[in-house]
Amino acid sequence: MTNKSGTVADDVIVVEGLRVVRGGREVLPDLTVRVPRGQVVGLLGPSGGGKSTLMRAVVGVQVIERGTVRVLGEEAGSPSLRHRVGYLTQAPSVYGDLSVRHNVAYLARVLGVGGDAVDRAIAAVDLTDHADVRVENLSGGQESRANLACTLVGDPDVLVLDEPTVGLDPVLRRELWDLFRRLAAQGRTLLVSSHVMDEAVRCDRLVLLRQGRILSDSTLPELLERTGTTDAEQAFLALIDGADRDGGEAA
Amino acid sequence: MNPRITLATAGRILRQLRGDHRTVALMLVVPCVLLGLLAWIYADAPIDVFDRIGPALLGVFPFVVMFVVTSVATLRERTSGTLERLLTTPLGKADLMLGYALAFGAMAVAQAVVATAFSVWPAGLDIAGPLWLLVVIALFDALLGTALGLLASGFARTEFQAVQFMPAFVLPQFLLCGLLVPRDQLPTVLEWISNVLPLSYAVDAMKDVTVQTHPLPDVVPSLAFIALWIAASLALGSLTLRRRTP
Asked: How far away is chain B from the Cα of A22, in angstroms, using its nearest Cα?
């Protein structure tokens, strides 16, 4: 089944030949990646590798040099996608001088969702007890959860989450990953970046990004088998060593 | 643009202001303290200088205060990532700019009412024209400050820079607005410049209300000129708000 752009219709995010230059530096030279519907795709790799830039391109706030980025069959960032794509920035993009509830309620009004969406989003990130606390008085982990609640409130079809679990304790990380799995089971598509390799286990597919290039794009079992390792971190290191060796030989 | 989103944005900005009691107090009290000080300085002057300068300052305060508040607030949105997220939502640039204009316009009306009341009663300012017109002019000045503040924040990378834009945008207008030297006695080139700067018209309008019983025919053209500046600044400011950034 293909649509008019020639892509498989169930690929929700389609990035082809993407080149991005930021501050005179080529962050993504030529990147092609697809994210199928209903999957949680983990974007892993060292910081500075281009994860956030790719996510910015997918939500349509990144100036791109070349290539195409399509989400749900539309060009990334087009007006019809703005209700359907939820973006979580890496730095908490919440108003410190407003309470959690008022932050989430503002996004809800912008997105035109009403009813108990605000309460549900706050409950989903386990902040119900802190709903009326000003964000600047929260801990770092609570602040990043408040940020996530703002992304969840519009109930988007596609979630682009840049480091959603950074700074959270293991229990909360597990809870959030359970939530991501539930959202995917309901047919939503998630692109989640992380540099915590043990979160790889919770992803349907892993895209390992280093220096703007994809080192690997497969399921975890495939990755482990290919590299002959037992966990994501070792697999990743093996891939990096392999890439460096190849690069060295080529030079 | 969408009225629901514009109003939600204005409401959110007002709620942020309401949580910041000190800023609100400063916005309302500082103009009164300065006007009171001015009245006191000229208390023993042979001619009533305060009647000449007081109204002009009523026009300057909302402009300066709203310029600073808006440029810092919007710079914060740009640098904190809140703007980046908002621009991935259905929010339009106009929603954001009008949201700021509505919120700070409301704040400016409160400031103008307090400052005008203080000038007229405790400080003893003589106003020949209708008082409500002073508030209307103050509102235009505040919107001008908000619009120029939005524009200036597009050229600032840090809050330090944003604050430094205040003297850069405001002081030349203040020097040329006719308060220090009547505008028709300025050197020719400066007079031309003063003829296109919006604060000159704000101060002229305030003066008209002070001395004329029926100042409306003179005030309306001044307000129209200020409105032109507001529209141009908002249009230029919207160019600095880009959904896609490098």
From this structure: 6
Residue A33: name the closest of A232, A189, A198, A229 by CA. Answer: A189
B16 in contact with A at a CB cutoff of 8 Å? yes
Chain A residues whose C-beta is within 8 A of a chain B C-beta are 21-23, 56, 59-64, 77, 79, 82-83, 85, 87, 89-95, 97-98, 102, 106-107, 109-112, 134, 150-151, 154
Residues B116, B57 contacting (CB under 8 angstroms): no
Name A198's Cβ contacts closer than 8 Å, sequence gap at least 6: A231, A232, A233
Residues of chain A with Cβ-Cβ distance to B14 below 8 Å are: none
Nearest CA in chain A to B78: A93
Chain B neighbors of A59, CB-CB under 8 A: 88
pLDDT-derived band of residue A250, with 50, 70 and 90 as boundaries? very low
**Is-contact A165 A146, C-beta < 8 A?**
no
Rounded Cα gap, residues A34 and B153, in angstroms: 38
- ipTM higher than the 0.90 cut: no
Euclidean distance between CA atoms B128 and A155, whole angstroms: 58
Contacts of A122 (CB under 8 A, 6+ apart): A100, A101, A104, A128, A131, A149
Torsion of CA A28, A92, A148, A71, to 10 degrees: -30
Tens-place pLDDT, residues A2-58: 444 444 558 999 999 999 999 889 999 999 999 999 999 999 988 888 999 999 999
Q: Global pTM? A: 0.89
Residue A248 has pLDDT above 80, yes or no: no
CA gap A3, A74 in Å, rounded:
11
Q: Which residue of A has its CA nearest to B99?
A: A110
d(CA B144, CA B230): 5
Q: Which of A21, A63, A98 sits opposite B16 (nearest CB)?
A: A98
Select from B222, B201, B204 the least CA-distant residue to B212.
B204
